[in-house]
Amino acid sequence: MRNATPLLIGVCADLIVRGPHAYHQSGDKYIRALLHGDTPVVPLVIPALFHRLSKDCQAALINKLDGILLTGSYSNLHPSYYDEAELEGDDAERDPHRDASNWALFDSVIAADLPMLGICRGFQELNVYFGGSLHHRLHEAEGLMDHREDKTQPVEQQYAPAHAVTLCHSGILSAWFTEQHRIQVNSIHMQGIKNLGQGLQVEARADDGLIEAFSRPESSFLLAVQWHPEWRPELYPQNARILAGFVEACQNWRDKRSQA
Question: InterPro entries, from UniProt (predicted)?
Answer without folding.
Answer: Class_I_gatase-like (IPR029062), Peptidase_C26 (IPR011697), PuuD-like (IPR044668)
